[in-house]
Amino acid sequence: MFYTSHGISIFIKKNFRRINPEKKTIFFLHGFGGSSGDWQDVFSLLGSDFQLIALDLPGFGKSSKPRSDDFYKVDFLVQLIDEILIKFTLHDVVLTGYSMGGRLALHCAINNPTRIKALILESASAGIKTLPEREARRKSDAELISFIEENSLNDFFSHWQNQPLFNSQKKLPLEERCAIFLKKVKHNSKIGLANSLKNFGQGSVENVWQKLPKITLPVLLLSGSLDSKYSSLQNEMAELLPNSTHKIIDDAGHNLHLEKPTDFVNLIRDFLQIF
After folding, report:
1. Residue 164 belongs to a domain
2. Domain at 17, CATH number
3. Which of 22, 35, 165, 209 sits 20 to 30 Å CA-CA off 229?
4. Does residue 79 belong to any structural domain of this protein?
5. Cβ(28)–Cβ(21) under 8 Å?
6. Domain containing 97: what range?
7. Structure pTM?
């Protein structure tokens, strides 16, 4: 289904029609270049035990790909999530985000936590700590935006998926990797990718490390043993978040729900049993 906000259409995927107050609700936020469809295996494994909802963020999947920067900035994205929670009268939501989606989930918990009961952050960080590092990242993102604008989506995703960060995905069957690649090319646009990097890339978004101690919600941090960078970052986050648990999935890289969906879901189930 589609939800309209400020003149743009947002695609929403959910497994329920009416709210069942006896079931926990999990709201999934995808990563850069992804979509709500990335959570299909997770939806299947969680089945009807939970109320599940996911969306295509502006610029991705089946949602609108607006040209205006305003639709990709953190303030609008936080507002959009809250609008959708209100639209479907959702309370006590477990907000779950992967990478870029985890960054957004963290900002939602800081800026508008009223309807959020817990966080699950998969391979996400609290931002880039120093100004020189952020400036270097903005410069790197600007170069990547130029690459997107000057090349085909096939070229971009070939380049993007060949980063060391995603090396562990090469263990997946070739057929599966090809299907994922084709889906990314089909459901993305140069406008959406470029505007997201420009306005919600790590170089552009506020560093929230100092705000982590104020987040009292239960937080599950998930990372892969083959992703040393984000495992280290999440260890640091766990020390600052007063009510957090960090779990590392063996033999997995950055995208846990793709590489190890059963392990990913089992950790979610275990986490949700405590409240």
Report:
1. no
2. 3.40.50.1820
3. 35
4. yes
5. no
6. 2-129+207-272
7. 0.96
